[in-house]
Amino acid sequence: MPLPPAGRYLTATLVLLVTASVARPAQVSASSASDADTVQLRRTLTIEASDRCLMERVVAIEMTTTGQLFVADQRASQICHYDKTGRLIQVIGRKGAGPGEFTSLAWLARLPGDTIVAFDGMIMRLSLFAPTGKLARTVQLTLPPDAHSRSITAFAVLPNGRLLLGFSDVQRLPPAKTAVPFTQSFYLFDTAGKLISAAGQGFESEHFVQTVPMRFGGTAYWDLAFGRRAFVSAGWGSAFAYVDGASPNVKLMDASGRVTATLSTPIRQRAITPGDIAAYRAMEMIGTRDADRSIETLQLEEMPYPSSRPTFGGLFTSTGGALIAQEYLMPTDRKPVSRWYVWSSKDAAVRVLQADGNIRGMAASRDRLCGVEVDADELESVVCYALP
Question: Which pTM was predicted?
Answer without folding.
Answer: 0.87
